[in-house]
Amino acid sequence: MATELPRKEAVVVGVGWAGGIIASELAKDGIEVMGLERGAERTIDDFIMQKDELRYAVRYDLMQDLSKETLTFRNDRDMRALPMRQLGSFLLGTDLGGAGVHWNGMCPRFLPYDFEIRSQTIDRYGEDKIPEDMPLQDWGISYEDMEEHFAHFDETIGTSGEDNEMSAPRSTEYPTPPMVETPAIRLFKEASSELGLHPYQGPSANLSEAYTNPDGQTIQQCQYCSFCERFGCDYQAKSDPIITVIPTAKETGNFELRTHANVRSISYDGERTDGVYFIDMLTGEEFFQPADIVILTSYVMNNSRLLLQSEIGTPYDPDTQTGVIGKNYCYQIQTSVQGFFDRQFNMYAGAGALVGHVDDYNGDNFDHSDLDFLHGGAIRLMQTGIRPINTNPVPPGTKQWGSEFKEANAHYLFRTLSIGAEGASMPHVNNYLDLDPTYTDSLGDPLLRMTYNFTEQDRNLAAYQTERMQEIMEEMGANDIVANPDIGDYNIRPYQSTHNTGGVIMGGDPDTSAVNNYLQMWDCENLFVVGASAFAHNSGNNPTPTVGALSYRAAEGIKQYYENPGPLA
Amino acid sequence: MADENEEQQTKGLSRRQFLKNSGYVVGGAVGGGLLGGVFTQNFIGTTDAPDTATEGDTTSPEQLTHARMFFKRQEDFDVLSAAVERIFPDDETGPGAISLGVPYFIDKQLAGEYGFNSREYMQGPFFEGAPTQGPQSGMLRRGIFLGGVRTIQNIAQNEHGESYFDLEPEVQDEILEAFEDGEVDMTGVASDEFFAMLRTATIEGAYSDPVYGGNYNMDGWRQIQYPGSQMAYTDVVAEEEFVEMDPVSLHDHHE
């Protein structure tokens, strides 16, 4: 029997970037918010001794405990879905701040093309350019309407960067200057320029200088210590929810946080919700948290899973291609080219978002008339800082162990540069999320089941991007180059990126989307579902700034709804 | 004379192999030829190391962690030591796995969360999956490692009549290569999977912070010019020339 708690005006489920932004914006406006976080509390004191590759980068200390909850995976519907028993392909966050704590801090905005991808593709290339099995959709909003929300996110986190003619236009200056240009990044930029491309210093949440945001929160200057992704920042120099939006929410006095509160279902009468059920993971006690407005702000996977489990919205059916929950699950197509050099670079130094960035082959910045794919991706030389367990670059043909390996690893560790492409992922009718019929979590609830594989579009895009990167690497003067244009089948084991998207997508039509452009559920007007789950496809850039912008947009909608309940679109 | 453990770990072997194995286990248990070698090399490694050993002090605090927490039998530990030394040998590049304390590192890892797969999904049912679906074994790593070193020893005894740690390096490598190629029958796990785990654990022991018992004296880092966990690189990050510096560890942050 669940213990009923005092009613709240709004409850936020999952307190990372999305939950923190919603909580801070509503609480500043005088709305009482309860934040339910299934993980533990986390403060900056947790990161003081964090420069430990084994604990954080290899053993995943900040990541989700899969013994309690994971998902199942299969490449296609003919395969038996099996549990992701160990982390690999993507790293699900846990605890306060969520995946917003262990991110690299890469801050490029999605392109205007992304928001109106279907219309723009038809306008430029005709409808035949879109494959029949690609449910490509506009997002129900234009970049122009999103821009102020992107700017708001940049102001909150203090983004360091510089303008570039190939990236999304901005109404405001970057709050802080770009990060330093290192010799490796300079080499990449010079080679790219020689080839007629437009390289620039990538936008970063590892700040180039100390910055105080409009909420009064200070982010410190990056020390280029190289412990960013998979780590929390011991300097408070990487913007994350713990040093920005969560304290802002707390300072209002209108935000209450409850950790170890694992939400299992959303109460729903077929039209509205009146709260959520959660388990206190420390005591096992069950609670009901009543609320006027419920906002799901957990990671992509759990947003879909909670809706499916609570039977809200129509689950996507790949046979009929109807229904929306679980639809358009997308990922990204990561490819890279390695180059071996004579000289050594100080690649042990770096930062998560210290990067030379090229957008010439991203979005629709290049002509696709004669190409067998849509979109593209950012091409980059990232200097995140080499750490020795996970990075052992040896030339092809080198034995992977013994003296030959040791010698080659010692020689090439700082003589190897890598260029990577972050390829956009387009939706496919057979890539989707639903509930697994066999496997359960530690509470006995069904796991989410992911059905996903790379498509022809993805393979063609990957091969093209690899060729472009090879050209740049040759221009950079590498002696030996390793490039593999064939990505094969999607494999859940090797790390690729924590850029999972879709499942609860936004749009202008309730038949083809789950939420409107304020991320309000079409089927439940006082339920908002916020996060990368709203992306109708995934871009060739990092998702966090777009998650941030959509969160500010949703906060606007929730405030409007609070004043004047009803459908916002 | 085989005890319960012995019987369990022979499940995947043929009856012929099992009979052969049973014969050598008794003899093998008194082997442990590497025991002296382990200590000697560590001792040499320590006294030669330029930056740690304080004068007149031959037992640094780090050395006191060199005792087994997981492996019970000396023979198992000696097989492990010999195998990781082949993966990461003492050579011109620098000290090898044994001098760096890698066997103790692996032993400590197996004694804890890593050995128990405690933060991984271990609920059944278990099915063999496609390679794209990741590991699906219901066995814990501690069981896989124990089975692995005993299978290495079985092969050494069966095919060469000697303990693995007494074989010539070339022969030791041949045995490991058979594992790497997936040619060895093991219980609950493919041999290439076990070899990949062993190789990865060896790299981890050589290159992780010394707090975990490996990378002794930070000599794993020194041989690759890795500066460890420095607090800041603001002065270095934009430098054209490569800057080599003495590494620092978590211990240095702790003071």
Automatic annotation (TrEMBL), chain A:
Residues 427-550 form the Glucose-methanol-choline oxidoreductase C-terminal domain. It comes from the Bacteria. Pfam families: GMC_oxred_C (PF05199). The keyword Flavoprotein applies. Keywords: FAD, Flavoprotein, Oxidoreductase. The keyword Flavoprotein applies. One of its GO terms (molecular function) is oxidoreductase activity, acting on CH-OH group of donors. Residues 158-179 are annotated as: Disordered. InterPro entries: FAD/NAD-bd_sf, GMC_OxRtase_C. Belongs to the GMC oxidoreductase family. PANTHER family: LONG-CHAIN-ALCOHOL OXIDASE. This is GMC family oxidoreductase. It comes from Salicibibacter cibarius.
From TrEMBL, chain B:
PROSITE patterns: TAT. InterPro entries: Gluconate_2DH_su3, TAT_signal, TAT_signal_bac_arc. Pfam families: Gluconate_2-dh3. It comes from Salicibibacter cibarius. This is Gluconate 2-dehydrogenase subunit 3 family protein. It comes from the Bacteria.
